[in-house]
Amino acid sequence: MSVRAMIAKYVDWIDQKYPQNYLIQKPVIGSVLLSFYCLLFLIIYRPFDLSAKGEMSFEATMALYTVAMIPVHMLLIYGLRKMWFFSNRDQWSIRKEILAILLILTGLGIFVFAFGFWVEGPLNRLNFATLMDSCKIVFLTCAILYGMLTLINLRYLESGQIPVTVSGDSVEETVHIQSRLKSEAFTLPLSDLLYIESEGNYVVFHLFQNGSVRKEIIRNSISDVEQMLAGFPFIVRTHRAFMVNIKKVSKRTGNSAGYRLQLEGAGDLIPVSRSNVENFDRMYWAMR
Fold first, then answer.
1. 10 Å Cβ neighbour count for 162?
2. What is the rounded distance in angstroms from the CA atom of residue 194 to the CA atom of residue 208?
3. Which domains does the chain have, with CATH numbers?
4. 50 vs 41: which has the higher pLDDT
5. Are 142 and 101 in contact (CB under 8 A)?
């Protein structure tokens, strides 16, 4: 394999879509979890020849540092989300994961260095060596948890499955669906809708009611139905023959060439064609 081919293969790998690290995905819970982990790690193993400072015990000193890290870690994550490169969660990749972790840990290292002036006093701290020591402690401590949570997601690269969780209350609205035959019109309860499928000159509405899937069939085109439901952004066209209620998506598999969606209560996998992936991703993340 040529050097150019190896570089191209590496670039393709590092730019693959990748689940976001839990600590970044959930800033509040993640920050508390990271703080608790760091405190336990430092107290149990006492690495880096750390010791108590002043009148405080070693445990109290470490607790002070790790608790103070919580709001800083949260601010660093929210700050990254404001940056264009990291703002689009549905386009998260291995490259962005690595860069985000490096920036967050660097920020925490600088904070620990600065916070030490208040905890330990300024004597012999204002130098480059102390700054590097602070960054080293943060990187070697926090990188273990960050690395574990990142490596856990490696299995999705081979399986192509990206687990998703859709939150939000059920919509209690109903819509009157017109048919080309007036006798076939019916009222659609949006909170029960799983997906809509086109079958020739008919449109099939798949509803989950009373623990089972029920079908409503009317004579119409899926394009006309799409116009009727245009005011409900959580109902999205995914394929020339399918529309999906995003709030019912429990899992998706695939990549930028197309998805397969698993819906709550439905046995069939619903396709997302390549031409609809970008719009699906945009609307899906907007609904989270």
1. 19
2. 7
3. 3-158 (no CATH), 174-287 (2.40.50.1020)
4. 41
5. no
